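Q: Could you fold this chain for me?
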Amino acid sequence: MSVPQIVIKRRLVILLLFTFIISFALTTRVFWLQIVLGDELKARAQSQWTKDVPVEPKRGTIYDRNGEPLAISATVDTVVASLPDITDVENTAELLAQALNLDVEKLLQTLTDAKNKKKASIYIKRKISDEESEAVRKLNLKGVYFTKETKRFYPERNLASHILGFVGIDSQGLDGIELKYDKYLKGTPGRIVSETDAMSRELPFGVDKYIPPQDGYDLQLTIDKVIQHIAERELEKALIEHSAKRGTIIVMDPKSGEILAMANKPDYDPNEYQKYPQSQWRNSAVSDAYEPGSTFKVITASAALEEGVVRPDDSFFDPGYIIVSGVRIGCWRHGGHGSQTFIQVVENSCNPCFVNLVNKLGKERFMPYIKAFGFGELTGIDLPGEAKGIFNPSGVGPVELATISFGQGISVTPIQLLTAISAVANDGKLIQPHVAKALLDKDGNVIHEFTATPVRQVISYETAQEMKKIMESVVSNGTGGRGAIEGFKVAAKTGTSEKYVSGKYVASYVGFVPADDPKLAALVIIDEPSGSPIYGGQIAGPVFQKVMSDS
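A: Sure. Below is the predicted structure, expressed as structure tokens.
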């Protein structure tokens, strides 16, 4: 019996519809895989048949202002293990441990774990020495090969360590200038892409693709290596001579804000920074606050002159003490200084007379000058970890106002104080300090130059000139005589502040040379000197004199 024509047609339609649905589903799937997921699947496939090894760029060199290298990078070997190619794990671990001075048990465990997890390759030891590289090459081990990386070296070792900082194993900046300008110094990594089989083993005749790295920019600093060496040498001698806890010296161009030297002792070797306690990495010149003592009197005197509450020849009388709100504040000289002019008040660093001065000035007029000179805020120096110091105008009463006038009851950082004193040297203009001078390409061309950044006019030109003369008189007739330099006019102020630990002092000396046309400004701080005397003029003054005269 024949099948009716209508049934045949219905079956053909159903078959055709089924075929269309299947074709549409397959086409949709192909479209999804090829178009929508194409890039992702291609990348996953390439990762299965290729091995991607990063190529580290060469980190930019750091130079001093005269082109002397302070931080350089050199190409060194890194040992890598290709796990699928290693057949005898125990023997490989034992031989490598001997050649690279590694713990054999730990290395064996590392290789075994990596092999069990089917990893393609792992680092054995990065950035090895030439001797270690030669020892591994002689072993000629299957599955062990080298890749090139760069290692940071500091040829001057401890010199300027707190400025330069250091880098980590991946050549990333971790402290100092290395951290601050890391994005310019580090460069862009390259790659080596090799074809591999299903077991992640390199194909004997596979194609390797090399994408070269882009090296980082070089960086020129404002630091002068010679002046830096002088500062560190004299600071270390002073700490030994006075059995002091630590010390700081900063040398600066007061007109441009360029830091020519910045030294802290004790310091460290950035080539081996891991061997030193972290507290020793700290850059005290920007990170530590202290009571400045009588060096702060430059600020008080400048404000008083600017506001017209005192003139250089005005008379004062010091009986040896002054009473403020029932609190007796004594003079450092037993019996006081008696009658004296304002210039002599500064020369003698007389506390009671400075209290009289600030009482005439008043809190409302004095506090804005402290802020204008930059205290209680960051200077903006291009170094990490800068502190603001401690200055809270709202908590200042009559006694606090009196003690702040001679540098007690306020905490400043060394860089804040030197920047403020440099404003006096710079005709009343406050300049932002900086240690970077220029970014350079590999041909030595300047990519970007870091120039002086004016902040504000703190005092008038006339007041600045008067203060220069008074500070010069401190050296020629007053407490700053030990900082005098033959043939030069020196303007300076001494400071001795007692710490909250009884019997502990900070001796300091700040000034600039020549007094009438300053080219160099410097601050010397000797923390907790032992023995006697402990005055800043006698301890820090000779250090200032030696650093500035040699510079």
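A (continued): The chain is about 35% helix and 25% strand.
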